[in-house]
Amino acid sequence: MPSVPVPARAEFRTGLRDITPLSLGVALYGLAFGLLAAQVGIGAPLTALMGVTVFAGSSQIVAADRLASGAGMTVAILAGLALNLRILLMTASLREELAGRPFWQIALGVHLTSDENWALMHATRGRGGQAGYWYLVGGGTSLIAVWAISTTLGAGFAGLLPDLAAIGLDFAFTAAFILLLRNLWRGRADLAPWALSILTALSVALVLPVDPSWALIAGGLAGAALAAVRGGAHG
Questions:
Q1: Across 74-95, average pLDDT
Q2: pLDDT of 13 over the 90 cut
Q3: Whole-Å CA distances, 110 to 41, 97, 133, 136, 219
Q4: How far, in Å, are 62, 118, 182, 189, 201 from residue 220 at the CA level?
Q5: What percent of the chain has a predicted confidence (pLDDT) above 90?
Q6: What is the average pLDDT across 27-47?
Q7: In the chain, alpha helices (H)
Q8: Angle between the 8-18 and 20-39 helix axes, to the nearest 10 degrees?
Q9: Do 113 and 133 meet the contact criterion of CB atoms below 8 Å apart?
Q10: What's the whole-model pTM score?
């Protein structure tokens, strides 16, 4: 017997509710990023704007780190984009959810797609639950709100803390990024793209006389390309 479709509003509320435990974890990352961003001169207003318009924790951390190293705005943006190419693969898998929808709904769904709500949508389906477009959007709405608020609060509170380098914590960006990467790991299927990305980045950084930012960009592109090829082969 076919299942009865869940109304959009109810599906949205379910996604909003189910993502809550993950949103609490995102809040911790957001506070950490806000503190770190303020340490390199990114104030609370810009941090809030980044949280709403970029909405990509790992990319924001890399971009802020590259700005702190003096790499420049263009290279920082490219490094962040390269790291976030995995989102293109996720949104490419949403053809069924986005098909036939008006442009504003497509744009909203793509913007709110993240590792957490995308994975939760598929996990819910795997358990036999109904989780479609509005479930994804509900989860994404919670995540983007929590991320924007927590990063802004972190940046606002940063003035109460001493300079990280002065107290020997100038490695904090690296530590925060490693912690966030651990959260993105989805299992053995990620091993090959991650390995290629790391090897490519190391090769470029060690062999070519370029800014390390370009090594990050090359690694991100290589890993995303392999993931796309593997995804197509299994599709």
A1: 76
A2: yes
A3: 30, 11, 10, 10, 24
A4: 12, 20, 16, 16, 8
A5: 18
A6: 80
A7: 8-18, 20-39, 44-53, 57-68, 73-83, 86-92, 95-98, 103-112, 115-126, 133-157, 172-184, 191-207, 212-234
A8: 60
A9: no
A10: 0.70
